[in-house]
Structure to design on (147 residues):
Protein backbone atom coordinates (compact mmCIF):
# COMPACT_ATOMS: atom_id res chain seq x y z
CA UNK A 1 0.00 0.00 0.00
CA UNK A 2 1.36 3.39 -1.00
CA UNK A 3 0.92 6.31 1.42
CA UNK A 4 1.09 9.87 0.13
CA UNK A 5 3.14 12.50 1.96
CA UNK A 6 -0.02 14.44 2.84
CA UNK A 7 -1.67 11.30 4.22
CA UNK A 8 1.39 10.60 6.33
CA UNK A 9 1.36 14.17 7.71
CA UNK A 10 -2.34 13.82 8.66
CA UNK A 11 -1.66 10.49 10.35
CA UNK A 12 1.26 11.87 12.38
CA UNK A 13 -0.77 14.94 13.41
CA UNK A 14 -3.70 12.78 14.50
CA UNK A 15 -1.47 10.57 16.64
CA UNK A 16 0.33 13.53 18.23
CA UNK A 17 -2.73 15.74 18.82
CA UNK A 18 -5.10 13.14 20.27
CA UNK A 19 -4.44 12.58 23.97
CA UNK A 20 -3.77 8.97 24.82
CA UNK A 21 -5.72 9.17 28.08
CA UNK A 22 -9.13 10.66 28.68
CA UNK A 23 -9.32 10.12 32.45
CA UNK A 24 -11.09 12.90 34.35
CA UNK A 25 -10.09 12.87 38.01
CA UNK A 26 -7.14 11.08 39.50
CA UNK A 27 -7.81 12.59 42.90
CA UNK A 28 -10.09 15.10 44.54
CA UNK A 29 -8.59 16.41 47.79
CA UNK A 30 -9.26 19.85 49.28
CA UNK A 31 -11.69 20.40 46.42
CA UNK A 32 -9.02 20.01 43.72
CA UNK A 33 -9.51 17.93 40.62
CA UNK A 34 -6.30 16.27 39.53
CA UNK A 35 -5.90 14.51 36.22
CA UNK A 36 -3.62 13.86 33.29
CA UNK A 37 -2.30 17.01 31.65
CA UNK A 38 -3.19 17.52 28.00
CA UNK A 39 -0.78 17.13 25.12
CA UNK A 40 0.98 19.93 23.24
CA UNK A 41 -0.01 22.72 25.59
CA UNK A 42 2.40 25.62 25.35
CA UNK A 43 1.66 27.98 28.25
CA UNK A 44 2.34 31.69 28.22
CA UNK A 45 4.20 31.51 31.55
CA UNK A 46 6.30 28.61 32.80
CA UNK A 47 8.58 28.15 35.77
CA UNK A 48 12.16 27.52 34.76
CA UNK A 49 12.75 23.84 34.05
CA UNK A 50 14.80 22.30 36.81
CA UNK A 51 17.21 19.45 36.22
CA UNK A 52 17.87 17.32 39.28
CA UNK A 53 19.30 14.02 40.42
CA UNK A 54 17.72 11.86 43.11
CA UNK A 55 18.46 8.63 44.99
CA UNK A 56 16.31 6.27 47.07
CA UNK A 57 15.00 8.05 50.17
CA UNK A 58 16.04 11.51 48.96
CA UNK A 59 13.58 14.44 48.80
CA UNK A 60 13.86 17.49 46.56
CA UNK A 61 11.58 20.53 47.05
CA UNK A 62 10.37 23.13 44.52
CA UNK A 63 8.38 26.29 45.24
CA UNK A 64 6.01 28.10 42.87
CA UNK A 65 4.19 31.37 43.56
CA UNK A 66 0.66 31.10 42.11
CA UNK A 67 -1.07 34.43 41.35
CA UNK A 68 -4.75 35.12 42.02
CA UNK A 69 -7.20 34.14 39.30
CA UNK A 70 -5.28 31.11 38.02
CA UNK A 71 -7.62 28.26 37.07
CA UNK A 72 -5.05 25.47 37.22
CA UNK A 73 -1.42 24.52 37.58
CA UNK A 74 0.32 21.73 35.69
CA UNK A 75 3.30 19.84 37.07
CA UNK A 76 5.57 17.77 34.83
CA UNK A 77 8.09 15.45 36.52
CA UNK A 78 9.95 13.46 33.86
CA UNK A 79 12.74 10.95 34.52
CA UNK A 80 12.05 8.66 31.57
CA UNK A 81 13.04 5.35 33.21
CA UNK A 82 9.96 3.48 34.43
CA UNK A 83 11.81 0.90 36.59
CA UNK A 84 12.89 3.70 38.97
CA UNK A 85 10.03 4.88 41.20
CA UNK A 86 9.60 8.57 42.02
CA UNK A 87 6.64 10.29 43.63
CA UNK A 88 5.27 13.82 43.39
CA UNK A 89 3.27 15.56 46.12
CA UNK A 90 1.76 19.05 45.85
CA UNK A 91 1.41 21.14 48.98
CA UNK A 92 -1.04 23.94 48.22
CA UNK A 93 -1.66 26.75 50.71
CA UNK A 94 -4.88 24.98 51.71
CA UNK A 95 -3.86 21.32 51.75
CA UNK A 96 -1.63 18.46 50.62
CA UNK A 97 -2.48 16.71 47.36
CA UNK A 98 -0.82 13.40 46.62
CA UNK A 99 1.55 11.61 46.55
CA UNK A 100 1.28 10.56 42.91
CA UNK A 101 3.30 7.90 41.11
CA UNK A 102 4.21 7.13 37.51
CA UNK A 103 0.85 5.69 36.40
CA UNK A 104 -1.19 8.59 37.92
CA UNK A 105 -1.39 10.25 34.51
CA UNK A 106 -2.59 7.03 32.86
CA UNK A 107 0.75 5.97 31.39
CA UNK A 108 3.69 4.14 32.98
CA UNK A 109 6.60 5.87 31.26
CA UNK A 110 8.84 7.47 33.90
CA UNK A 111 6.76 10.64 33.96
CA UNK A 112 4.13 12.21 36.21
CA UNK A 113 2.28 14.83 34.16
CA UNK A 114 -0.75 16.22 36.03
CA UNK A 115 -2.98 19.28 36.12
CA UNK A 116 -4.40 20.51 39.43
CA UNK A 117 -7.59 22.56 39.06
CA UNK A 118 -10.62 23.66 41.04
CA UNK A 119 -13.93 25.32 40.24
CA UNK A 120 -13.45 29.02 40.89
CA UNK A 121 -9.67 28.75 40.54
CA UNK A 122 -6.83 27.32 42.57
CA UNK A 123 -5.67 28.89 45.82
CA UNK A 124 -3.12 31.64 45.20
CA UNK A 125 0.08 31.76 47.19
CA UNK A 126 3.09 29.52 47.67
CA UNK A 127 2.74 26.00 46.31
CA UNK A 128 5.45 23.48 47.14
CA UNK A 129 6.19 20.33 45.17
CA UNK A 130 7.95 17.39 46.78
CA UNK A 131 9.86 14.98 44.53
CA UNK A 132 10.73 11.81 46.42
CA UNK A 133 12.97 8.91 45.36
CA UNK A 134 10.89 5.88 46.36
CA UNK A 135 13.07 3.24 44.73
CA UNK A 136 16.01 4.23 42.55
CA UNK A 137 18.86 2.05 41.33
CA UNK A 138 21.91 4.26 41.93
CA UNK A 139 20.85 7.79 41.09
CA UNK A 140 18.24 9.07 38.65
CA UNK A 141 18.28 12.39 36.80
CA UNK A 142 14.98 14.15 36.10
CA UNK A 143 13.39 17.34 34.79
CA UNK A 144 10.67 19.23 36.66
CA UNK A 145 8.59 22.17 35.44
CA UNK A 146 5.28 23.79 36.40
CA UNK A 147 3.00 26.09 34.44
Amino acid sequence: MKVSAIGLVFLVCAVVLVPGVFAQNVDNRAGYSVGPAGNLVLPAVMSPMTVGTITTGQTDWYTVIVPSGKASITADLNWGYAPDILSLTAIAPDGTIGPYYDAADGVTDGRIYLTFSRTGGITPGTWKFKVYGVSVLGSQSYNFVTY
